[in-house]
Amino acid sequence: MVMASAGVNNMPQGDSEEGRLRRRARLHARRYAHQASSAPAPGPAEEGEVVQSPPPSEEGSDAVVAAAPQQLPSSKEKEKRWPVSFGSVALAGRLREMEDTVSLHPSFCAWADGSPMHLFAVFDGHGGPHAAALCREQMHVILAEEMAGAAAAFNNRQQSEEQPAEASASSEQVAWRGALSRSFARADALAVSACACGRGSTLSVPKSCSCLQSAAQKGAIVGSTAVVALLVRDRLIVANCGDSRAVLSRGGVAVPLSHDHKPDRPDEMARIKAAGGKVMYMNGARVRGILAMSRALGHRLLKPEVICEPEISITERCEDDDCLILASDGLWDVISNKVACDVARQCLEDGSPTRAPAAAGSSEAAPSSGGAAPVVSQEEEPRCFRAAALLARLALGRESSDNISVVVVDLKARS
């Protein structure tokens, strides 16, 4: 708002310009001195209120510019700062059987403060598609139940105890970690008797079927990796069990949010030996010479060496975040974190076609976005689909010998 000072009309005609400027400066000074002496002392500023002192007047200036008070962003404006859109591709590649699967569930539940939580995951099955199929169908259901319980307990603690903001944030993270650990344990308990046909994939005791019998005949060497990403407000939570991986592209730099659980990783090897197991080198390091990873869901025969406890990372999002990539080892075995992030980022920056191209071996192309993208898309976005498809094709071109599953989550608001 601009307030122009009144002109002084009774000045003698003979006054010089310099004299008029000096008088105006003295007039402004007297006005501010009078306002300062008569105004009450300011109290503490309320939330959202910006207290500003008047700007110093410049000699010869005829105007005083008063800045309007700033307001804190509304909840809707805060949500716009953290957009989410996604796309995925899952290919059998050079294998006859498809054991990978992906899970995409935006707004699958709400946290204690009402903020929506979004789930994206990749599951890489072993010994058949049974365990990965169960994870795809049930992990988000289990997580929604566990998060609801954790949110209720968190709210109860907040109401009974007054905590500073730092302690509250810490308690929130403890609640998230606990819910994820419990969810992985419940999924692990079901994974051994998982069934690809769906009749065994229930939260109750699975019923007998031919798929289940087939899994049992394989000596319980049936399981799956799990890399699960949860997005809530400005937090990115990743839980990993196995050698599927999550990588964040931040300002052109690849930031790993998970670390592969390999039997020859020093800390994992020590844990396996402490549990009475052995790491044998047969086409790479393997637990008992069988499994090429040290953590997974299922694999009853290899317990207690192979555990289901996930490693969890919690990352604060920032404006430099480009995208999040979740993928099975079919991608990471032949493509580095940096190359994957560079390719995905370039695809997202290049813009989106009317309809995303279908990846080789995929059933169909992603649907058209049909206009401006919402803050959180509920369907796969063509630009993200194209990035995932290109990464999968690149892995095939580099002769990946495994199934390839890729999820790309765009973390920027793009027109």
UniProtKB/TrEMBL annotation:
Among PROSITE patterns, the record links this protein to: PPM_1, PPM_2
User: What EC number(s) does this enzyme carry?
Assistant: 3.1.3.16
Compositional bias per record (Basic residues), positions renumbered to this chain:
21-33
Q: Which cofactor does it need?
A: Mg(2+); Mn(2+)
Which spans does this entry mark as compositional bias, Low complexity?
Answer: 356-374
Every copy of the PPM-type phosphatase domain together lies at: 85-411
Q: What class of enzyme is it?
A: hydrolase
Q: Which parts of the sequence are annotated with region: Disordered?
A: 1-65, 352-378
**What SUPFAM superfamilies does its record include?**
PP2C-like (SSF81606)
Q: Which Pfam families match?
A: PP2C (PF00481)
Give the matching InterPro entries: PP2C (IPR015655), PP2C_BS (IPR000222), PPM-type-like_dom_sf (IPR036457), PPM-type_phosphatase-like_dom (IPR001932)
Q: State the UniProt keywords alphabetically.
A: Hydrolase, Magnesium, Manganese, Metal-binding, Protein phosphatase
Can you provide one Gene Ontology molecular function annotated for this UniProt record?
metal ion binding
Which reactions does this protein catalyse? O-phospho-L-seryl-[protein] + H2O = L-seryl-[protein] + phosphate; O-phospho-L-threonyl-[protein] + H2O = L-threonyl-[protein] + phosphate
Xref: PANTHER family: PROTEIN PHOSPHATASE (PTHR47992)
Q: Which family, according to UniProt?
A: Belongs to the PP2C family.
What is the protein name given in its UniProt record? protein-serine/threonine phosphatase
Q: What is the originating organism of this protein?
A: Triticum turgidum subsp. durum (Durum wheat)
